[in-house]
Amino acid sequence: MKNFLEFEKDLIELQGKVAELEALSKTSNSKNIKNEIDDLHKKSEKVLKDLYDNLSPWKKCQVARHPDRPHSLEYINSLIKEFTPLSGDRNFAEDLAIVGGIGRLKDIPIVVIGHEKGNSTENRLKRNFGMARPEGYRKAVRLMKLADKFQLPVVTFIDTPGAYPGKGAEERGQAEAIARSTQTCLEISVPIISVIIGEGGSGGAVALASANSVIMLEHSIYSVISPEGCASILWKNSDKMKEAADALKLTAQNLKEIGVVDYIVSEPLGGAHRDKEKIISDVEQIIFKEIDKFKTMSPKQIKKSRTEKFIEMGTISIS
Q: Global pTM?
């Protein structure tokens, strides 16, 4: 892994020393060098554990946005057999910021939809950094209705800073497309399992996450607005993003406490990007378990349970 975060400076120095000693060990059989490498590995692991044991909300934002973090297509390609991508909204265009299609999860036929940020500069530009336009949400609506027609469970992977706010997107009905996608999530009679794998930003995330089960990775975030946007509005200063991150209560732990998310998936030490195979495997197990839960429920019960879940959010009892 070559990309380190701002707060991982101590780790960069240690791993730099390890790299130097490992290069030296190729030309020397000295036991002292090997012992020193072992000591530095242990020290690196301790530093990493100390850093990640008590991450602030702002640091969690940085981890959630890490460029090496596994994206939707990595989950789809690893977990979904016979994946057949489906493109276009049958109205205007194909939006590469949202991927979707049909396939099998452990031999269960499903429809899968996800935000895709891309993994290179060229690819990120092509996918608009995971910020979908109206046609992306209309494609999602089309796929959810297809799932409903054939009674297939829907799995969504959420990873977006928010819906694209550009002029063209607004002209083509961005707000209506997001609202329609959210409405479709609540109307269909098949189970929807949503996994927030990185950023869950604003209505752009809710449009695919109004689900029966909302699963969140330990260091992912989910909020009504980005910390930078919140700081710009409240303090007229985007440099106040750390304070905004605290105030937004955007961490998985905060949201589980108030019932917005149902499950938290523990990440490998140092974040999902440090062991992609493990986190993808852990996510697969919980998705499969959640889908299995709805097998005994009728379509009417599935829809009702999802609706009641969202109605109950934010309810307070007055004694």
A: 0.90
